[in-house]
Amino acid sequence: MGPLYGRILLVSNLLQQHYIMKKPTLATLKSFINKNRPNLHVAVKSAFDGMTDCCEQRSGKFSPATQSDGYKNTLGINGVWVVGGDWIKPFDEDGFIGYVVSNCCGRFVVAVPA
């Protein structure tokens, strides 16, 4: 068994990890929100500010989710704003489990207590 066999095993393991840990999508986020709406918490880490024409840091403290005015881009929750090109990543910190979302409008975390 030569070095080629070791490389094949390495590539095989990487492919297995890729298919086991699928990338979270907008559908994953919507499903998580709909299943956990009563226990949902939101932390806004940064948000777009028109006065400075960029994203500004926010407190980032978790607070219970409240219903928004109904725009489809907020998914019905204040502090949430999804647009095309959202970067969604699993979140598990500070006693909360959920997803962190970054996009051109800012960065927020949608989570439930662990």
Task: Please describe what this structure looks like.
There is one protein chain. It contains 2 helices and 6 strands. The chain has one domain. Strands 1, 2, 3, 4, 5 and 6 form a 6-stranded antiparallel sheet that branches. The protein is α+β, with helices and mostly antiparallel strands.
Summarize the structure.
This protein has helices at residues 3-20, 26-36, and strands at 41-49, 54-57, 63-64, 87-93, 96-103, 106-113. By secondary structure, it is an alpha+beta fold.
Provide tags for this entry.
114 residues, alpha+beta, 2 helices, 6 strands, 25% helix, globular
Radius of gyration from the CA trace?
18 Å
**Low-pLDDT residue intervals, each spanning 5 or more residues:** 6-19
Number of individual domains? 1
First-residue to last-residue Cα separation: 46 Å
Global shape: globular
State the helix count. Answer: 2
Mean model confidence by pLDDT: 78
Strand content is: 25-35%
Task: Please describe the topology of this protein.
Layout: H1 3-20, H2 26-36, E1 41-49, E2 54-57, E3 63-64, E4 87-93, E5 96-103, E6 106-113
Antiparallel strand pairs: 1-2, 1-3, 1-6, 4-5, 5-6
